[in-house]
Amino acid sequence: MRYDPQKIEEKWRKKWLAAKTYEPDFKYARKPFYNLMMFPYPSAEGLHVGNMYAFTGSDIYGRFKRMQGYDVFEPIGLDGFGIHSENYALKIGKHPAEQAKISEKSFYRQLQAIGNGFAWRERLETYDPAYYKWTQWIFAAMFKHGLAYRKKQAVNWCPSCKTVLADEQVIGGRCERCSSIVMKKDLEQWFFRITEYADRLLKNLEKLDWSERVKIAQKEWIGKSEGAEIEFRIKNPSANRGQLARQESRIKVFTTRPDTLFGATYLVVAPEHPLITTHESQITNHEEVKKYITDTKNKSEEQRIAAGYKKTGVELKGVKAVNPANNEEIPIFVADYVSAGYGTGAIMAVSAHDERDFEFAQKYKLPIRIVVCPHYPEKTCPVLDTAYEGEGHLVASGKFDGMSSQDARRAITDFVSGKRIVQYHLRDWLVSRQRYWGSPIPMIFCDACATQKKGECAEMPGWYAAPEKTLPIKLPFIKNFRPTGTDQSPLASIEKFYKVRCPRCKSWARRETDVSDTFLDSAWYFLRYPSVKNRKTAWDSAATKKWLPVNMYIGGAEHSVLHLLYSRFLAMAFYDWGLVDFEEPFTRFRAHGLLIKDGAKMSKSKGNVVNPDDYIRAYGADAIRMYLAFMAPFEQGGDFRDAGIRGITRFLERVWKMTNEKLKMKNEKRNNIKIENDALMRLLHKTIKKVGGDIEALRYNTAISALMVLLNEFEASPGAVSAEDVKIFLKLLAPFAPHISEELWQAVGGRSSQSIHRGPWPRYNPELIQEDTFDLVVQVNGRTRATISMPRGVTEQAAAARAHASVRRHLSTEPKKTFFIPDRLINFVI
Ligand code: ANZ
Ligand code: ZN
After folding, report:
1. For 263, 368, 386, 500, which has the most beta carbons within 10 A of its beta carbon?
2. Nearest-5° angle of CA 544, CA 545, CA 549?
3. How far is the CA of 507 from the centre of ligand 2 (A)?
């Protein structure tokens, strides 16, 4: 019989499904292991081979754990709500609700075909009302706990997706979804207060077993910064004394380098800074300032990048600030290199020690004063051609001269009564979207209550969370679902949807018509999987206790500051509310690598996207799985080449042949073979150890190489290989090529009731994997002075030479005599 993957693969997938091979026993599982892979957006034409790479990579690990005796839970679902899917539907001219049904079918068919050990009974789709009911419930809970609020501010707006975006969804100035250049718009939106958790999100990173690059990305995104707030007086020099007293006001700056205060030769405020309006009457060039502000608002991030980040600004003429360290009057500028959303929206500029300020000062011919000198006490601070941002000793700083810059941070802050504070770069999560295909935000606004300052939350009169019994608020099917571009969702014109009674006063009120961000759907899905059947709560507490946190999570590094941060934030909030008993949802996370094709990133425009269907049809899922695993270290990714697959197919054909030849031997004979060939036995046990260790470390490629070496040796001495040895080989192969290994396992006489995939994973004999060495005891006059590792069977001469060197300091003279016991001991007599 020939190896025919098409024939056996389909058959086994059906059998596994019928036998519930991959369904853990939810109640009685004793060693629960939650093995999770990020669920896909079913937005494009179908699963592409990059998805398959990630999914089968995660599955290899899950299968290994299952064979090790864990009750592995490996669920799957679809992240089908949201802009991704809606944009795709728009592109192909279908309604997203209809397209969802089509994508669901084709994705699930493809996900079946790759041969993963999914727990199919627990699947979920984020657009299913039975799921988003709880997404809405979470939104309402966030509101009740003061973690969801509305605020007007300049927000990111994607002109193509016609919706606002969170900061995390703007990558290099462009929309994460469609790559359009993102603009700024002043809008009132819903936010989640993730900043309240900034410190904990940062601190917990230390104890997480996650891919280092993801931890670094989160750390940088959270961006903890220690510094000081320092107040500057503002003066209007043209005013007379009486006016001066009245008009004197203050401005606060945030700085991480208060030690450089004596070198602050001007201030800069962001274009949105309130000072510009509060001091409008004193700013003599107000028209010019206004024009600058409108110009910068229309400049996108992209244009700024194109302009080489050239810093521009305008002085606010007619006002001055007073440096509190030396009472010097300094000018104030407005410039867009200072952003309103960080710190206080105003900075003290120290051009000698901050590169941005340096560049600005050069352009506008402002003084550059060195106050930190690295060569102190030589005091020969050179002329700078770039800012010196390092540490040193203070100069030109009055009584602080000579102090180290580190010490001066505190001393100068205290001297001017500044406040030491910690700042985070992290911003609150903007969660409302002016789109159709998402979970309606479960909030109601009542005008009548608002005017009476009534509401569920003191700061937001008129707002109520939709009562739990009214959830889910179903997304109505509407024909015209296209984004409007009017800052409102298409739902805003559907009266039947938005007209609702106020939960408190029963007068007519209005539902929120924005939907929530897709990333809210996916920020909690891992909690739902073990509880998908539960209709009463979002997650069942017993099931959650048993299965969570996720033991192993695999996914793309591109989600580092999106999904992976949002999920941590929600889990922490749930922990605080007593809803889960862990703060961190993913104990271990590994980012997989990316696939390229013939040296280039796969993309539709290049026409090099690989659809796994064709390959599975041609070579079988086992060959593709193994090829993907063999191609490169899993966390690194690699280059997809057709030629490589044929190499793997030949390997599988040889496994097939080797096993079948064993089957042709008489039963009795093949069971009685003992590996007499010592070297082969050792190799077998070393391979068991290596494959297990490599899978644990996600080094699938080297595990497969080891199997290839073992197969060569099995083929070289067929007479020395027993049926039991072949079975061990098949077990080691099983996580990578689940179908062929099951087929051969059953043929070679594994108990037919038990799938190879239920284990157990083979054990190795530690004695057999020991390197062929022993510890030689080295004595001088009968006293042990050293032990050294030597190859077994070493000659006296060779042993003496190394032993002599190792105890030289105990040998006052050359030994008179040497005693040698082979493979044990050597004694020098002096
Ligand atoms: C004076 C100074 C002197 C500064 C010096 C640096 C070096 P991080 O680390 O990112 O927190 N800054 C403060 N608020 C800003 C804003 N809204 N927009 C742009 N820049 C702002 O950086 C903090 C530093 O960035 C602050 O310290 C401030 O410049 C600037 F030798 O103050 B520094
Ligand atoms: Zn009301």
Report:
1. 263
2. 75
3. 6
In this prediction, residue 305 carries a pLDDT of 57
Which CATH number do you get for residue 402? 3.90.740.10
**Considering the domain boundaries, does residue 207 fall inside one?**
no
What integer best gives the mean pLDDT of the chain? 91
How much of the chain, in percent, has pLDDT values that exceed 90? 71
Atom of ligand 1 nearest to the CA of 258: 1
- pLDDT tens, 397-435? 999 999 999 999 999 999 999 999 999 999 999 999 999
345 Cα nearest atom in ligand 1: 17
Q: What is the CATH number of the domain that holds 675?
A: 1.10.730.10
228 & 376 share domain: yes
Segment 588-617 mean pLDDT? 84
What b/e string do you get for 150-188 counting C-beta neighbours within 10 Å, with b at 16 or more? beebbbbbbeebbbbbbbbbbeebbbbbeebbbbbeebe
Nearest CA to ligand 1 atom 8: 225
The total domain count for the chain is 4
Ligand (nearest to CA of 448)? 2
Structural domain that includes position 818: 771-829
Q: What is the CATH number of the domain that holds 574?
A: 3.40.50.620
Q: Which of these three, 395, 424, 453, is where a domain ends?
A: 424
Give the contacts of 529 (CB within 8 A, at least 6 positions apart): 36, 73, 75, 77, 122, 124, 547
Note the ligand closest to the C-alpha atom of 462.
2
Question: Over 90: is that where the pLDDT of 230 sits?
Answer: yes
In this structure, the answer to whether residues 736 and 782 fall within a common structural domain is no
Of 221, 252, 257, 355, the residue with max ligand 1 atoms within 8 A of its CB, to mutate for a pocket test, comes to: 257
Based on the fold, state whether residues 266 and 367 are members of the same structural domain. yes
Using the CB atoms, write b or e for 309-344: b if 16+ within 10 Å.
Answer: eebbbbbbebbbbbbbbeeeebbbbbbbbbebebbb
pTM of the model: 0.86
Residues with CB under 6 A from ligand 1: 225, 254-257, 260, 338-339, 342-343, 345, 347-348, 350, 353-354, 423
Residue 441 forms part of a structural domain:
no
32-37 and 71-73 beta bridge pairing: parallel
Please write the tens of the pLDDT for every residue from 5-64. 999 999 999 999 999 999 999 889 999 999 999 999 887 678 888 889 999 999 999 999
Residue 812 belongs to a domain with what CATH number? Answer: 3.10.20.590
Burial class from Cβ neighbours inside 10 Å (0-12, 13-18, 19+) for residue 541 reads middle
- Residue 187 pLDDT: 86
pLDDT in tens, 758-779: 989 999 988 888 777 788 999 9
Q: Closest-lying ligand to the alpha carbon of 273?
A: 1
674 with 553, same domain: the answer is: no
Average pLDDT over residues 175-203: 91
393 with 310, same domain: the answer is yes
